[in-house]
Design goal:
It is built from 11 helices and 12 strands. The protein is of the alpha+beta class. A 4-stranded antiparallel beta sheet has the order 8-9-10-11. α7 packs across α8.
């Protein structure tokens, strides 16, 4: 993923199409890399970072914030690696939860700094602002097998995230009566920016439309791991699942064989970055739950008001490699080092 590059800049970030100023800020995540080497910028064909204060309207500005991410409560670079952080807190689950909560507050504070800049520049009413995340987090709950992290299992703790829209004359404090999806952000932003959404863009344009209360939202996860031994490396599938959800609950359908899934997940939780926290937090009941989750082909959460057969008919049965154009770029030594420190490479 981190060595992929889209065939071209996404329309939302293309300044030539709309004559807009484009900014991208990934400072809090990729602390050890030059701007041109930061994967999010490379993926989107961007060379340099910008701060909001450097942009003039009309503009599109993306802030890739570190968010509540290991090491919880600390800036990237304080610990040499994710594993070192969790060794420090391996038997201290309450402190880890407190640090994670503090990380959430820290991320909101950084967001509010950007928000307040829009207010001070008198730009808020003409700017659509979106605040969201790519995933939640397991924090050692028994229901998730004592697991820390977000790659697996697919559960409400991992898929339920905030999606908040502000500015642009929107009313304050209103809540949608239905679930939104991360796929709704791109069409909504495109619609607000240019009035139309390309036909090949997924999701619902909630700038001009309202999802139905009966809407079911899909979530997918595929967690691959590149393992290097000596001069040889191989990519193995650690976890893959599809889920379908609404406000009443949802179903998760695992892919791969039970044996393959169990072996890969035990390896992931015993050997990788989050492993000290999992081992330090483990109990017989949590281990039993972890094993049951790994061996189950189907999981049920809440009290979904739709059947598992309906859910199964609406999710893909297997993941296929996309046919869209993209290119692979070889990772530099500095990129590999930071990705290992962040726990993405083994």
């Amino acid at each position: 993923m981190f060595d992929d590059q889209l065939a071209a800049r996404p329309p939302l970030l293309d300044p030539t199409d709309q004559e807009i100023d484009v900014g991208f800020d990934a400072e809090t995540v990729w602390t050890k890399l030059e701007q041109s080497e930061k994967p999010p910028l490379q993926i989107h064909h961007l060379d340099t970072e910008s701060k909001l204060r450097e942009l003039e309207p009309p503009f599109v500005h993306v802030v890739h914030d570190v968010g509540p991410h290991a090491p919880y409560g600390f800036e990237n670079g304080v610990f040499e690696s994710t594993k070192e952080f969790f060794r420090e807190y391996e038997n201290r689950r309450p402190q880890l939860i407190d640090l994670y909560r503090q990380d959430c507050h820290n991320s909101v504070d950084r967001f509010m700094n950007v928000y307040n800049q829009l207010v001070e520049r008198d730009l808020l009413d003409e700017t659509l602002v979106a605040f969201t995340s790519d995933h939640g987090q397991c924090l050692g709950e028994r229901e998730n097998g004592g697991r820390f992290g977000h790659g697996h299992p697919m559960s409400p703790e991992n898929v339920e995230i905030p999606v908040v829209f502000m500015g642009a004359g929107l009313p304050r404090g209103e809540t949608y009566d239905t679930l939104l999806s991360g796929t709704d952000i791109a069409p909504t932003a495109l619609s607000a920016q240019r009035g139309t959404v390309p036909e090949d863009v997924d999701g619902t344009d909630i700038w001009r439309d309202t999802p139905t209360v009966e809407r079911r939202v899909r979530s997918d996860v595929w967690q691959n791991l590149e393992v290097t031994v000596g001069d040889h490396s191989a990519e193995i599938s650690v976890y893959a699942a599809c889920g379908l959800w609404n406000d009443s609950g949802g179903y998760v359908f695992h892919q791969k064989s039970r044996l393959q899934r169990l072996g890969a997940l035990f390896f992931d939780d015993l050997c990788r970055g989050y492993s000290p926290a999992w081992r330090g937090n483990l109990s017989p009941r949590k281990l039993s739950t972890f094993t049951r989750l790994a061996l189950s082909n189907r999981l049920k959460y809440g009290r979904p008001d739709f059947s598992d057969s309906l859910a199964f008919s609406e999710v893909p049965k297997d993941f296929e490699k996309g046919t869209h154009d993209f290119s692979d770029n070889a990772l530099s030594d500095a990129q590999v080092t930071q990705l290992r420190d962040l726990g993405y490479l083994q």
